[in-house]
Amino acid sequence: MAERKTTLLEAKGVCMYFGGLKAVEEVDMQIKQGDIFGIIGPNGAGKTTFFNVCTGIYPPTKGKIFFEGQDITGVSPEKAAQLRIARTFQNLQLFKFMTVLDNVKIGCHIKTKSNLLDAIVHTKQYKQDEEYTTEKSLDILRSIGLHEYRDAKAGNLSYGMQRKVEIARALALDPKILLLDEPAAGMNPQETKSLMEFIKMLNQDGYTIAVIEHDMKFVMNSCNHILVLNFGKKIFEGSPDQVKVNQEVQSAYFGRGLVAGEALK
Ligand SMILES: Nc1ncnc2c1ncn2[C@@H]1O[C@H](COP(=O)(O)OP(=O)(O)O)[C@@H](O)[C@H]1O
Ligand SMILES: [Mg+2]
């Protein structure tokens, strides 16, 4: 596991209120280069909202977000993508009637040069971009084990596979950081295990990853640092071993009807 060094994505005192509801309250976070950074917490703890603020979906009510030391508070999602902050969504955001390959190619387009006119008249630039994005997308599909499904309609794949297509599309952006919102949701144990191995492999290839996940085995086995949210607030952060034995974390899960030992195994 890489040592925690340079800070890549930082949140300082981030708050996100929806009317009177404090979905995220004064959260500080530092994701370092090379981390597999886990975010856990019961349902409704504010995890997805926090990701949404970090990726420009919502400007925070208060607080600041920095990426590579630059203040990116309130930038648009498109700008965040241009900065190569890539993410997947808890509720899948695939184009279900398009092929797997085309879904991944969309991820490349933010980086290519051709515009709509190039596409309509099929300029040389467009052809070059098209070849590049196709090859690149196929490479990513190969690495994630979905190459043979490249021509299938995304909506016809299993839920677990659709999640992988979303990750493939995020990778097409050449992300500096990859934020995954419950990537293992809907996956069977075998799929979850292979996803975990894939994420570790990406990390070894140099990707910094932040992951929201309910599967504790997944989190405890893959993350080097974990942030725990409850009712919008950070209640703890530390290594998997520190999180496992922390009383407040135990009771946050215990209080929601989960057996603590089960949740944090
Ligand atoms: N756009 C929104 N408008 C109003 N309330 C929201 C919105 N998004 C999330 N919430 C509320 O914020 C809280 C945190 O939600 P969420 O971030 O989805 O939690 P988690 O991902 O940890 O399950 C919940 O009470 C949720 O209902
Ligand atoms: Mg969520």
Which helices and strands, and how do they pair?
Blueprint: E1 7-18, E2 21-32, E3 36-40, H1 47-54, E4 62-67, E5 70-71, H2 77-82, E6 85-87, H3 100-108, H4 116-121, H5 124-144, H6 159-171, E7 177-181, H7 189-204, E8 208-212, H8 216-222, E9 225-230, E10 233-238, H9 240-245, H10 247-254, H11 260-263
Helix pairs in contact: 3-5, 3-6, 5-6
| Largest beta-sheet characterization | 6 strands, mixed
Looking at the structure, the CATH topology of the largest domain is Rossmann fold
Say which CATH homologous superfamily of the largest domain is assigned.
P-loop containing nucleotide triphosphate hydrolases
CATH class identity of the largest domain: Alpha Beta
Poorly predicted sequence stretches spanning 5 or more consecutive residues: none
- From the alpha-carbon coordinates, what is the Rg to the nearest angstrom? 19 Å
Q: For the largest sheet, list the strands in their spatial order.
A: 6-7-8-3-9-10
Provide a count of the helices. 11
Give the CA-based shape.
globular
- Element-level helix/strand string: EEEHEEHEHHHHEHEHEEHHH
Please give the CATH architecture of the largest domain: 3-Layer(aba) Sandwich
Helix content: 25-40%
Name the bound molecules.
Answer: adenosine-5'-diphosphate, magnesium ion
> What percentage of amino acids are in beta strands?
15-25%
Total domain units: 2
Number of strands: 10
Alpha-carbon distance between the termini? Answer: 21 Å
Overall average pLDDT: 89
Structural class: alpha/beta
